[in-house]
Amino acid sequence: MFTLEEIPESRIAYLRRTGPYGAGNGIQMERLKAWASAQRWPSADTAVLGIAHDDPARTPADVCRYDTCLVVPDDADIRGPGIRETRLAGGRYAVLTVAHTSEALERAWSGLFDGLADRDLAFDATRPVLERYRPVLLAQHLCEICVPVH
């Protein structure tokens, strides 16, 4: 089902989008990648991270927040329209690989915490769940959901 991975603490540059989750998130990812490409520092294997801050079952769609992020070097200049920065807390994550389709991601999110207790793991609500889009997996039409655990 999932593997365990230690994700390091890192500096991230991000764009925030408010509104329904879905196609708009992909458009935002392309905007962030275009900005990063203009900076000439991301490599071909740079992963894009997505952070959904709100549960769409409990939050009206028009106020759901989604951050599209890139890990950036500590000395990178990240100025740009709408670009923000923060630190991503590192730690242990349960990583689930899923098909990169809206349907597969929706199914994965609905059963995201299934199986954690079977492995003596618990969700760490102090850190965000990450969607990770690595080029090597996207080429196979796959992506990952990384659940912080302790």
Automatic annotation (TrEMBL):
InterPro entries to which the protein is assigned, alphabetical: AraC_E-bd (IPR010499), GyrI-like (IPR029442), Reg_factor_effector_dom_sf (IPR011256), SmbC-like (IPR050908)
Gene3D superfamilies on file: Regulatory factor, effector binding domain (3.20.80.10)
Pfam families in UniProt: GyrI-like
Residue ranges annotated for the AraC effector-binding domain, each copy included: 1-150
Alphabetized SMART domains for the sequence: AraC_E_bind
Name under which the protein is recorded: GyrI-like domain-containing protein
Biological source species: Kitasatospora putterlickiae
